[in-house]
Amino acid sequence: MSIAYKWLDEEDVHYLENRTEDDTEICAKFVRLLDEADFVVAHNGKKFDVPMMNTRFVINNIKPPSPYKVIDTLTIAKKEMRFRRNSLAHLAEVLKCKHKKLKHQAFAGFSLWSECMKGNPDAWAEMELYNRYDVIVLEEVYKKLRPFASTHPNITTGDDHDTMCCPKCGSVDIIRSGYYHTNKGKYQRYACKSCGAWSSETYVMNTKEKRQSLLASR
User: From start to end of 131-202, where are the E strands?
Assistant: First the structure.
């Protein structure tokens, strides 16, 4: 029925909608958008949004988009924290985000979808506002959780410059801060002054002789 999205750190929230029973066109547009993205941020995207999209793509005989990585804020919240609830609305509230998830106004629950399917223009207006706001809230929640995401993909691997950047937010405002130790070596550690995330170099600091003398725990 509708899709809302934005590019990270850009101001505009984009919105697509389909008021017919044939969703081929909106699905085709969304595949092209996914082709542009290396990373897609969603809340419960891995279990709901992505399977739902793929279902509509295959039903409409649309080829899959190019591979992309899903960064799921619900997964991050469950893995790294222990919130009382993990809904997007609750996370936005407890994290004191500037924007809060909207509540349905004139059309509560399923009635919003039902009225949209009946062609009610007021319902469609509420659907658009609700979807656009969800995207804004999601971006805020994502940025709050991002520094703690231990499995967050390195967003800088595709960069064509040699400057060291934070692997989670891409900032160059990083400082050396201590060392990271494994069974096999010692690595320089960095702290990002922009988002607060920690990272480390990928090459070991120990000399060859030191590495040869190390014993690994078993």
Answer: 174-182, 185-192, 198-200
Domains by residue range for the chain, with CATH: 2-148 (3.30.420.10), 155-218 (no CATH)
pTM for this entry: 0.89
Q: Cα torsion for 58, 14, 128, 96, to the nearest 10°?
A: 110
Look at residue 77 in the predicted model and tell me its pLDDT: 98
Between the two ends of the chain, the Cα-to-Cα distance in Å is: 54
- Residues 54 and 63: their CA atoms lie apart, in Å, by 9
What are the distances in angstroms from CA 91 to CA 27, 39, 133, 144? Answer: 29, 21, 15, 10
- Secondary structure (3-state) at 195: coil
Most distant CA pair in the chain, distance: 75
For the residues 182-210, what does the mean pLDDT come to? 87
pLDDT one-digit tens code per residue, 40-63: 999 999 999 999 999 999 999 999
pLDDT in tens, 122-146: 999 999 999 999 999 999 999 999 9
Torsion of CA 13, 4, 51, 37, to 10 degrees: -30
